[in-house]
Amino acid sequence: MLVSNKWQDYEIIKTSKGMKLERWHDTFLLRPDPVVTWDLGELENELVDAIYYRSNTGGGHWENKNKIKESWVVSYQDLKFLVKEMGFKHTGLFPEQACNWDYIREKIRNSKKEIKVLNLFAYTGGATVASLKEGASVVHVDSSRGMIDWAKENVKLNHLEDKPVRYLVDDVLKFVKREIRRGNKYDAIIMDPPSYGRGANGEVWDIAKDLENLIKLCIEILDPNFLFFIVNTYSSDIPSVSLENILKLNFPSKNILVDDLVLPIKDSSLYLSCGITGRVTND
What we know:
By secondary structure, this protein is an alpha/beta fold.
């Protein structure tokens, strides 16, 4: 498993009965997590600044126990990110991706050439910030204008706004197909596809049906001597063995690693499973 254990501004304090108590800098959030299937008693409500309650009809809402900022900043090593309460329990940042940010930075730093990165389903830009920090150029694609604007804020927060980055509000599949026609190539591709979603013009995305096709298309725009290809998934429709099979079939003779992304739980030997990542390299 790949453990993101270098955080100072984030930690999981305790988990029990489908919930996790987390510290985001100096703000404590209690959020549901379906993989927490064990019972360690009640969580410390006196620490909680805000709780996310799920609705029986879908979605849910935040309830603030204490006055908290509309948004605040958390740091990971020398990177900074803006977080806030969002719908569907999210905060705009997935802390378990820190091990991928470290990997991305190391690969770019040790490369012997200028690196062009394509970040698909790029969300609020964690991987974009990590890539820019090491001098790569980035094309950042997401179907949500709001997420693109948030990514721009994160880039600016890290004083990287003058670095070579393009932001595109677009459907990922359509964008990749256009890049194939244009003959554009990338040294690295990162993708973090949702289980289901809609593109900028209502295009439907279903990871179980569409993931392999997207990977095949991405291979056409990868430089033959590409640096890395990373795909993350949080979908139960794509277990680790299935993702590994897809990568093996489409990247024969390449170095492939598929592993769980996990976060440590404070003062215990336990870890919280937070999805799967697949990495492909020419090494």
